[in-house]
Amino acid sequence: MNRFALDKDNITTLIRLSDKYEIESLRREINVSSENVEVNIIKVYYAFWLFANKIEPTYSLWEMAAIHDLDNVERYCRDSAREEFKRIMEAAEGLKHFLRLGISADLLTTVIKEVYSPSAGW
Q1: Per-domain boundaries in the chain
Q2: How far apart are CA 88 and CA 22, in angstroms?
Q3: How far apart are the C-alpha atoms of 85 and 103, rounded to whole Å?
Q4: What's the pLDDT tens digit per position in 12-45?
C-alpha cells in the first residue's frame, strides 16, 4: 500500500474528503472523529499548522491546548511543559490551578502519571 505524507498543502482537502465521503481509514489517519466534525477539523488543522510552521512547543501553548481540548497540540507540547507543570503542582495551588483553568481531570490524571512516573524520565 502506498502512503504519502500529510503536509500543509493537502491537509485541508483530506479532512474535507474524510468528512464528505466518510472515509473511515482517512478519519483515523488524520485523527478526526465523526462526531462534531467541523470542530474537529479546526482542531486538527490548527495542530497541523503549528507542526508545519515549526512552532516551538512551550508551557503556555500546552496550557492553551489543554484548556481547549486540542489533543494533538497538547501532546506535542507536553514534554516542553513538564518543568513548569511540576513547579505549579508543587506550589500551594497545585491541582486547583489547573482545574480552575478548565483543564479536564482526565487529562490531568494522564499528565500527572507521566510527570511522576519513574520510567517516564520526567
Answers
A1: 11-52, 59-120
A2: 42
A3: 12
A4: 566 556 555 555 555 565 555 555 555 566 666 6
